[in-house]
Each structure stands twice: as C-alpha cells, then as structure tokens.
What does this fold into?
Amino acid sequence: MITAGIDLGTQSVKAVILKDNELISRGKAFSGFDPAKAAEEALGEALKEVKLAMSKLVHVTATGPGMDMAPNSNSTVSMMGADAKAGVYLFPNARTIVDVGAEEARAVKCDVNGIMMDFVVNERCAAGAGAFIEAMARALEVKLEDMGPLSLKAERASSINASCVIFGESDVVSLIHRQESKPEIARAIFDAMADRVSSMVHRLGVNPDVVLVGGVAKDVGFVASLKRKLGIDVLIPAYPEYAGALGAALVAVNRVRKA
Amino acid sequence: MKSRNEEKKYMPEISKKEIEELRKTIEATSRKIVAENIEKMKKADLNRPKGMKYFDEIADFATREKEIRASKKEGKKVIGYTCLFAPIELILAADAIPVRVNSGWYDASKLGDRVVPVEVCPMVRSTIGAKMIALSPYLELSDALISVLTCDGMTKLGEILSDYKPVWAMTLPRVKDSEQSKRLWSEEIKSAKGQIEELTGNKIKRKQLKSAIGLTQKATKAFRRLQELRKGNPVIMGRDAMLVNQTYMWDSIERWTEKTEALCDELEKRASKKNWVCPPDTPRVMVTGTPMIWPDNWKVPTLVEEANPQGVLVADELCSGERLLYDPVGVDEWSMSDMLTAIAERYLMASTCPCFTSEDGNEDRINWMLNKIKEWKIQGVIYYVVRGCMLYAMEYTRVKKVLDGIGVPVYYLDTEYTREDVGQMKTRVEAFLEMLSARIDI
It folds into this structure.
C-alpha cells in the first residue's frame, strides 16, 4: 500500500511517501503565496523520485497550518496528532515530541501507540520558534546557518529576554552595545528560545524519551541549549523537518485500514 | 450625591463627533456579529427548537433596550452590575430592573486601551471602551452600578465607571466560610439594600422580598431543568443553551423563566423521540474560565461546535453561564432578617469564582467541576483564559492536576478580545477534539 503525507507549513511544504509503512521518498517546496501549488510541487517531487504516478497513492493525508488548502488530499490530521505518530514511529520509546518550526513551537505527550495524550503550543508568539533565530541572525549580521556553530564557541552564558521577537531584538542590541562577543550573544539567543520551549515541555511533564523534530532541530546551537535546559538527552531523527509529513502519511495508512 | 460635573478621574474627554463616528461603526459591526452568530447557530441545528426564536430576539440589544427605556419612563430605576454577587432579589423587590453590564465587544476593548494598559483584562477594557462611546444600552440605562470587588480588574472598573454614574462598591471577602467573612458580607448586603431603597424611593418590605425570591427560585428551577436536559444525548447545541443562560443577565426574569420552561418542554419531546442534534458519540466538552460575553466573545463555543472533528458543549463553568443561576436562595423562615441572610449566603457560599481562596485550594470550584464531569459525562475540558485574567490563569495549574488525576483531558486556550486569532485557535481546538475522539486511534 502506498500513502502520502503533506505538511503545509508556514515557510515550506514537505511531502513524504510511504510504501507498506516504509519511507521511500521526500519532497519539499517553499510555501510562498500559493501553498496549494507548493503542496503539488512537493508531492510531485516526491513522486518523481520513485517514479510513481499520483494515481498509485491510496490515501493522502494533509497536516500543518495550511492543511485545508492541500489539493488531492483525502483527509487531514492535526499537527500535534501527526507529530505523535511520527515520533513513536521513529523512536519507539518516545513519549514527548517537541516540534519547533518556523513560526510555532509545540510539545506533544503521547502513548506507546503514538496517540497524543496532551499538548502545549507556544502562546501566540514566534519568540520560541525558528523565525526568532532568523530575526536575531539579521541583527548580528550572521548567516542563519552559522548561528548554531557560532554559539557553540561561547565561553560563558549571557542572557536575553525572549518574550517577543521585537523585544528580543532590542535586547540583542543592548548586548552588542555592551560589547559582548557574537558567540555569546548567539548562545544567549538559543538559551532564551530553549527556555521557552523547555517550560512548555515542563508544563506537560518531562516524559522521556524526548524527541525533537521540525526545521529548528537541525540547528546545533538550539539543540545544545535545549539539552542543557531540559537536563536530559534529546533524540533527533535524520530528517527532522519531515516529521509532520511522515506522521500524516502514517495516519493515512491507519485511515485506509480502518475504512 | 456628588456632582457629575467634577473633573473625571480616569476617562479622557473625547469630542462628540468622534464618539458618534466610533459608535456608528462599532454598532454596525455589532449588529453584523449578532446576526452572523445567530445564523451560524441556526445552521448548526437545522431542526432548531422553535423556542429559540424568542432568545434570538432578546439577544438583539435593541429589543430589551426599548422595553427598559419604556419602563424608565414609567419611573422604574435600572441597576447595573458587573459581577454575579449583586443581590438581584433586592433590586427586584424595590421594583427596579437588574442588568449585567459587562461588555463582549472586541472593538470596544481597543478603545479601552486609551484609558488602561493593554495588559489589563480585555473584558474590563471593553467595558470601559463601551462606556466611552455609549455603546452598551444596559450600561447607559443604568441609574447606578453595583461593583462587587472580586478580581483586580473589576475592582478598578467600578472606580473608573464612577466617572459617570453612582457606583456602589461591595466588599467581597476572599475567604468564604469564616464567621467574620459572613458577617462582613451580610453587612454589605444590608447596606446595598439601603442604597437600592434610597435610589428607587421604595422601601423593601417582607412581602415584596418574598415574591422577588420566589421569582429567582422559579428561574433557577427552569435553568436547572435546561442543564439537566443536557445530561443525556444532545438535544440542544451548546451555543443555544449558552445563549439562553446568558440572556438571563438582561431579560425580564419572569418572562425569561416562562420562555425557558417552554423551551424545555420542547426539548423533552425531542429527547423522547431520540431526536439528537448531533451524533451521540460527538465529544462532550465543558468550557470553564473567563466569562464569555455576547455577542463578540462567542468565538470559543463557535469553534468547538463547528470544528472538524466536531464537539458539543454540554456544560460550562462560567460566570456568564451556569454559575449565574445554579443555586437558589434557600429560605427557612420568611422573616426579613432570615431572607437577607439567605440571600447573603446564596451569593457568597455557592460561588465557584476563583477570586476565593481556601486551605484546600478553592475546593468548591473543583468539586463542582468533578461533579459536572461525572454526571454530564464530559470527555474534555477547555480552560479558556483571556490575557490579563490572572485568577483563572493561575488556578489552571490546580484544575489541571485534578483533571489529570481522573484522566480527563483539559486544554488551556489563551486568547484576547480579537477576531484575528481564530485561525490559530481553530488549529488548537481541532487538535484537542481530535485527541478526544482519537483516544481510540486516528
């Protein structure tokens, strides 16, 4: 049985194809102004990679903030439900899935079958999410991908208040005026984000294993800060940004079986 | 009585022209929202009870405004209140009209930002904004306001509104069951009686008070009957029941009781025919938290009942809902002093407002919810908090612990008086409902 999952995120759309529960290909496109078109592109790319026609897909499940706009989808699933499914599929002992994307961060508690039991979402603010790193990288005049490695060079911790992207930026400016080094400021930025994300996890209760997914999981700086704040190891899959799409594709399998 | 020409303590001077312009725009939006909400409620239940027609009409502010205005011409006084502790029976006994004046208009909350910071609870800001442009007919028609000092927002709201009207502050003790608290509150009730008598010029006599208590007792009976009907498979959408409950805040109590009883008759027939408003396995949800005030602040009930997967609201623990009338005044002896004691007790002891504290952590609210969850077979609780609503926000931790203990999912939904976050809220509400229906598997 071949199924697909599409995750229509705020910044990019990801698609995943499963054959008999095994991941066989991925595709990605920028959301831009036309998420529906991006979804077609991402799914098209994934299909092309394994030389499959659209008609071979038995069921397509969409997730993500733009899920209602997905063309060719048979059903939808919440992002939290998809995270839970993907987390336990990737790491069978996972009980807490943390997903940090471009605009949103969330933590999901799940059971052994990957069924979500509880969840917390960051409170109407992008300060705990990827957009924050982007804004701060601009303020520091550092490339986004250099932020993480840079922060690892910090010799000590300084702090900023990441209650909001805008205030965070003015805090960074004051650190610059205090002539703090760039690595230390970069670390302060990740620490502030990790503070917000870890307090979300604490509200759910820290149930290991903790899995980190979403695009921000690729940032070594954030991962180091989050591990420090949680005080435990955090598991990260190979392609963390595809977790939502993977979860949706797994839900698609269930839906076919139940139908 | 002090002169109204005194310089205002809080409120800014705004030109008549600006007031007129703002009111025109916001009133037009309000009418649109009222119509939209009712339209959505009609669509949610294509076979909507006929009895709802009356409540749709009374939900339109203009309907009751006309009536109250006419009564005022005949010399009746109107007494507004912000919190549920205002002794309605005393107001009725003095032949005055009680109305709740809290504002649910989102646009008005933005005006309130001119007077107090945005960190303040939006219901308070909205009520201030409504007063600035004379938006709320109930607030405008009030001859005096009873401001019960419950939360910080309400305490200062009364002070701010005293720029316009006589405001009688009633000190509410934060600990319910001590002797000194009961004494203080009884004294407050007696002094409210004096103020009501002075304003209306009507001395409250035993006979009038007895019949006023009779009125609210009957209303409570009708109210409870409606909630009882929500115990089984759904015969009424949650929003419809919530609108019925809420109109009690401004309707004529006698007529409200009559119409609610009639609606219940209709619902009973529905139940006997197994005529459910949604599939019986629809997740049964209770909302608790910050009051939800008609017409704008209706987004959570709408989201829950229009979500995919759908939920149905079968109960609420809100001071704009079930807390309004859940407990009747219980009188043993119909003497004046016994009736006053009974009124004082009904308002103080029965309340589950988080402004109270006790050694066991506001146990009354917890127990009330546990009972509801059990009896009404509630599968999930949405804990709704607007920014700046400190008491509900803080008490969440306690409620969450208790509900985790009995395995009932609860979701903390934080929001503002705004229409812009509905998209984000939808994502969360739908994930929560998916979780409730998918504890089987998605």
The helical segments of chain A are 35-49, 79-90, 130-140, 144-151, 165-177, 182-204, 220-230, 243-258. Chain A touches chain B through 22 residues (CB under 8 Å).
